[in-house]
Automatic annotation (TrEMBL):
UniProt entry keywords in alphabetical sequence: Hydrolase
Source superkingdom: Bacteria
Domain Sialate O-acetylesterase: 96-339
Protein name: Sialate O-acetylesterase
Pfam short name (any one): SASA
Entry keyword annotation includes Ligase: no
Amino acid sequence: MVFCGLASSAEAVTLPAIIGPHMVLQRNAEVTIWGWGKTGEEITVTGSWDNQPVKTKADNQARWEVKLKTSAAAGPHTLTVKGYNTLVLEDVLLGEVWLCSGQSNMEWSASAGIDNAAQHVAEANFPAIRFFQVAHRTADTPQLDLPGQWVVCTPKTMKDFSAVGYFFGREIHQKMKVPVGLINSSWGGTPAETWLSSQAISASPVLAQAAAARKEVPWGPVQPGKAYHAMIAPLTSFRLAGALWYQGESNTDAPEVYAQLLPALIQNWRTQWKQDFPFYFVQIAPFNYGSPEERVRLGEAQLKTLQVPNTGMAVINDLGNPDDIHPRNKLDVGKRLAAWALNKTYGQKDVLFSGPLYNGQMKVEGNKIRLFFDHADQGLVIKGKELTHFEIAGEDKNFVPATAKISGSTIVVSANGVKKPVAVRLAWSNTAVPNLYNKAGHPASSFRTDSWTR
């Protein structure tokens, strides 16, 4: 960044950290550039991709902002901000900007330990991928700025950045041939409540009551809004292509609340950004939690969130480790998230993006139940000799292991002794790893056809 001019530092136009050299601005969009200056100071902002200056004045709060139209031209470009002083931001790219957020599995880096870490780090030379790491901070009210800087993707910078975010970004970059900017704002061990604004939590009696019941932990905030105010709010003027979310392990104690909490978070963020951007999330992996159904019920809440428009869920029940809450295969997590983006956001309809999802339809056929799935048009696949982890129950609500057979794009389930079946479950436990896939190689989500409490 080049500074020039004779104005005193008290009068110098300044920018938030998220607007700086090496950044990626969303291409083919209207982006906001903002900052601070002396009240009434005339500010001129010019992007070298079109050299069209846009003028404004700092208001009575010393804040200013302008809207710039970006093009498809990747760059590198310069962004010039001229007030009493002049700032020239070098090496600015136009591309796709994604926010990565959540708890430790999103925060997890190659340095922390991932499969084939040495190879992935050594290969991480992508000048058109840029990282912005948000530091851990809390605040009681929404903040205007946060610490951080944009850096170019190199082995040195990649190794401490979100591995899931990096693998997602690399896939988008390689398939779309465009620059990618990744903003990682994550904090290990945090519940979702702290990633919504405090107002969004208090607006819902259910969420407010659940948040009030959370107990302090030594590793991070739990109170509503604490992380949002410091780590998300300062970013809400920065135009995104979409958001990625990998979180839920710290909410397994109240999965029924999460079914309201995650949709509320999505709406809260979209409202604050004034943008209905795509929101793609990861269904948490099998792990040996304390209570027998914590993980699978939380996963069910995530599955229900697919009812929210413009969302997608990467299923990773085949990538987990029941003895490690941090699965080390982050490559396939990132690639499965990218598949959703490539198909749904970028229109690459040949990219298959989801595993089989039970679509709520079942048909009782004598002593058998036929199940119907979305994302199974090209057929279903067993990895192994026979389908596992299916259970069936009659009116007594007693589930027993079942035999399951693929029949085209459906599955027929039955069990000896269950003459009048009424419900089926798949992989309904914390540690179950089913072996049902579609021909694209994506695994099926766990599910149940009933809503029984037992």
